[in-house]
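Hypothesis: this fold can be encoded by more than one sequence.
Test: take the structure tokens below, design a sequence, compare later.
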């Protein structure tokens, strides 16, 4: 983690949330803004062995995967809290090492204002990790979402929460909406 701290920008830091961090950051922040990350997209590309599944019965969770762009929430963390927040995020997100944390340029998107570029801390899917699922057919994705249940509850709840929060932010994620609809339709 020390390289993450040495590479950290001076002053306050920004954290980019694209999944559960959007509605459940669980760390102190001074402000939050809509943001867009270019070069990565939100994808159900991580087998969950802890929070939304188990090794024997995995679920699927989001990762940032190469290509496209991703709308989310950026949280500004005061400088005096930065080290503790980064440590907390590592404990939360790096439980199995499936993500590669890094600093990446994002665009803050305030209503009526031109976008502002800042460096933010993000967690990118590690494509070489055993939990990297890549792009799966809808049928396999739905199966994993239906079966996934871990320490944080059912996988479908995680997807519905993400979709609900994206709608609140006026962000459309048609792939996620399709998967949630198909999963709910098969729950019978």
């Amino acid at each position: 983690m020390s390289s993450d701290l040495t590479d950290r920008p001076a002053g306050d830091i920004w954290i980019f949330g694209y999944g559960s961090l959007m509605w459940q950051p669980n760390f102190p922040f001074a402000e939050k803004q809509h943001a867009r990350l270019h070069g990565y997209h939100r994808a159900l590309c991580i087998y969950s062995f802890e929070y939304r599944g188990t090794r024997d019965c995995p679920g699927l969770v989001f990762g940032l995967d190469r290509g496209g762009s991703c709308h989310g929430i950026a949280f500004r963390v005061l400088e005096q809290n930065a080290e503790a927040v980064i440590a907390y995020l590592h404990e939360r997100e790096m439980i199995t090492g499936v993500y590669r944390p890094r600093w990446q340029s994002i665009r803050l998107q305030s209503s009526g204002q031109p976008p502002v570029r800042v460096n933010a801390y993000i967690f990118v899917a590690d494509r070489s990790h055993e939990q990297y699922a890549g792009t799966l057919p809808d049928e396999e994705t739905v199966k994993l979402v239906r079966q996934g249940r871990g320490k944080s509850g059912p996988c479908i709840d995680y997807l519905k929460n993400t979709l609900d929060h994206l709608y609140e932010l006026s962000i459309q994620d048609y792939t996620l909406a399709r998967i949630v609809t198909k999963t709910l339709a098969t729950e019978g």
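The chain has a mean pLDDT of 93. The CA atoms of residues 28 and 81 lie 8 Å apart.
Hypothesis status: open.
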